[in-house]
Amino acid sequence: MSRDDRKPDAATVLETHPPMPGAPATAKDLSRREKIIQQILSLTAFSAVFILGLIIIFVFKAGIPLIYKVGLREFLIGTAWSPTQGEFGILAMIVGTLEVTFGALLIGVPLSLLTAIHLSEFATQSTKSVMKPLIELLAAIPSVVFGFLGVVILVPFIRETFGGTGFSVLSAATVLGVMILPTIISISFDSLQAVPQAYREGALALGATPWQMVVRVIVPAARSGIITAIVLGMGRAMGETMAVIMVAGNAVVIPTSPLHPCRTLTSNIALEMAYASGDHQKALFATGVVLFVMIFLLNVLATALMKRK
Amino acid sequence: MEQEFQRSNTFWNRVGTRLCMTTTYSVAGILAAILFYLAWKGIGRLSIGFFLDSPIDLGREGGVFPILVSTLLLAAVALAIAVPLGVGTAVYLTEYTKESWVTMLIRFGAECLAGIPSIIFGLFGFILFVVTLGMGWSILSGALTLACMVLPTIIRTSEEAIKAVPASIRQVGFSLGATKSQVIWHIVLPQSRSGIITGIILALGRVMGETACVIFTTGISMEMPSSLFDSARSMAVHFYILAREGISMDMANTTALALVFMILLVNLGATILFGRRYSR
To answer: Which residues of A are less than 8 Å from B15 in CB distance?
Structure first.
């Protein structure tokens, strides 16, 4: 008589003596449960990719037909925007977006880089411990509030100082310049911190002043992180809607002076979405497609830069 | 000659370092000025009644009670959807996979999603949830859209928190005979709790302050919502309408203060409780 005959296998035991409720699970149960959990998790893991796909499909499906109908060239370089008359040219909005974005970078980048350098290289521990939460709070203030502050403080100030209505490229760029500070400060701070301590010691040992150390050694070493920070800040400025609507004046003209009003791609969508229908609504989705492509390219750029680090 | 050289070095050193310091204090000054301005303008009308009364005459008088309830509902539903998905993604990325094209694809998807402007989420939520799935302007449509928007934030913060759990703690779990899911559930997640909660709180702040995508998916009804399928108005949208349509500057100021105060409280809570820094 072999041993196998005397000892029934697990399956037989389970059949004749089912486990009490709450009894410890068998190894087989456990491994099946593990597999199910892993499958569920792998499904959730694709949620972000899935949502990205849905966004592309739905926004493009609503916008692309109109671009076809109008013609890509006409749509991108047409200057007339009167959607009720069937004129869909968004050049003014593209130029407006670019002007406001670069203006915001002109204002925001120097401020945030100098702040990040101070916090990373020169500040005392106590300054750091006050400033870092403060800057994080700046990131938490909603964009509508920034827009509102722009309307009640900045717009009158610009009107009185430089003339014009005050609702201008300059106002929008200034508001956005402040809004992108936390993004650029925190990412470039991180990349400055990642520079090895030995670089600093080496520079100082060679007789460099602290400022020379920063300009010649630390900043070049942290370059890719700093550029990534600027690109991400640029993406944020380009995609901002509510703050820009409130201070930019929103006229559909190609602004030739910082004091002229302008309309960005984002505000074009938000301003007209409430009442648009038919081709007009499709044109707003098409505006969204253009904005999406611009932001997507920026993101690819940022990812590529980050990988190089 | 050499002296001159040295003097010039010291000079530029002084200019550079002082410039950095001045800029830092100016940035702090800008933020302080913003907070003071909001407090100064808004504090006059802020009272318990403001939070507990219904708006009267389009919001010229009264309070924001139904709007506050809608905001909290939106936030709760959005997080209830986004948190399991985000934490699940983070667990999968850190515990179940090696670096490969699959994880690269997932990370790239999350990065792209994080960069998409809220107005495009608004368009997407409008065309998918409001129109195609027929949910109309409702809290549910808004919450689903917001959940898509904050998902990358939750993925990133949870992943960082989970990565920070030392491998040795996991090995102790395995050596006691625990399965992978048991180790994750009983050891890894509790250990990374503070980081995950920080991410959730960050997402909460973003949801409460969001305007562009809520206005297209949840609508602007000021009534008290009776179900998730009702249109509603969030605090940020209410503030936008008050200010933009010039309904009442007083009430706009008060609403702005209340909104910023709520968001700052939430963020400050996260900083104090867990003392973790975050970006974006």
So the answer is: 211
